[in-house]
Amino acid sequence: MTHWSLLGRRVLAIGTTLAPLARGPLFGAAFEVAGLERLTDLRPAMVDLILIDADAADPAALGQAFEGLATMPGAPPTLMLGQRLPANLVRALMRMKHSDVLEAPFTDEQLQATIYALLDGAGAEQAATSSHASRCWAVVGAVGGAGATTLAIEIASALAGRTTKDQGVCLIDLHLADGATSAYLAATPAMGLSQFGQAAERMDAALLAAFTTPISKGLDLLACPRDPVAFDLISREAVLRILEIACDAYEFVIIDMPRHRRPWSQEVLSGADEVLVISELTVPALLAARSLSEEIEAALPVGRKARIVLNRLASRMFGPTPSTAEAERALERKTEASISSDWEAAAASVNLGGPISQYRPKSKIVRDVAVLIDRVLGVTDRRAGWSRRAA
Ligand SMILES: Nc1ncnc2c1ncn2[C@@H]1O[C@H](COP(=O)(O)OP(=O)(O)OP(=O)(O)O)[C@@H](O)[C@H]1O
Ligand SMILES: [Mg+2]
Fold first, then answer.
1. What predicted TM-score, i.e. pTM, was given to this entire model?
2. Which residue of 44, 80, 111, 289 has the fewest C-beta atoms within 10 A of its own C-beta?
3. From the CB of 181, is ligand 1 less than 6 Å away?
4. Residue-wise pLDDT tens digits, 181-192
């Protein structure tokens, strides 16, 4: 899981000089400003992050506080800020498992990046000890109608069939104004954005459950009713917070991602473990897939790639369609998978309201989606279970 936002995070700030951060780069966090003595009766589970202004505290008392934190089981990640960071204090701080220092002056972005990295480190450890590592896949169409929603639904329902957990898969429709997932699944969308926006700050897994619609065993849907102004009703922080909580609660999170950029798009894509760009086998779609992938990759951590999936592959007897090899030349990269065209199965399932795997389980689309999932998960022999590829 990657941290995307500080909304609702409980931050304990040691030093009144840090108070203005609550209105700036740490906006949205549940911010408590206190003196150093607050650390003596600290219960780790009550705080997500400790920030300390080294310039405002007595160095000897601070050294003692660090010693206490270093021996405290489950001590929250701790970040020391300041212009003067004495080496002995830095050394004492570094005895803590999750700690860092940031020397002033620093920018808001540097502060946020350092905090996210600290929270990620602590989160990764928690995930390893609880053997829970969420997988978040964003599915985005290269052009309108490429099949992103169809494939997001099929991927989500196929994964739900493989997981044994109750909270297996959450399909999140981020087409907030006019998402199609609920209509495709004949489900009632439960995420009313006006209530949701108000609840965002105190959102947790239990509250999130009130906004999800159960679809089938292991599959929940998070989608909004149609609302033309939906994008204005919810802040960037709230969108990122939803994803964070869903990633904590579910084994898999599949996002039906809008193609047009929103204030949160790049963060969602760079926070996702996988980005699947869905293209058709037409020249304009392939060109769009290439440039969209490049655009997305510019914001991804170095070396991470979007995966291109070719959808609606039909026999070439229906006209001058490019072959997969020609498509890969146009894309200047290998594709991840090809999904066959099956209009009858796709139309039947949306008309009946459910995944293709439910109404047309023998469709080639279902088989091809299974191959795509195996490929992304790095499964080589499904009979041996679906062990995941090592990171
Ligand atoms: N492999 C396929 N074979 C046949 N029809 C398909 C296939 N994939 C999708 N379709 C059909 O193509 C149409 C568009 O699909 P879908 O709504 O999933 O695309 P989209 O990329 O989500 O579109 P939008 O840009 O509107 O979000 C739908 O009618 C769907 O049933
Ligand atoms: Mg769609």
1. 0.72
2. 44
3. no
4. 999 999 999 988
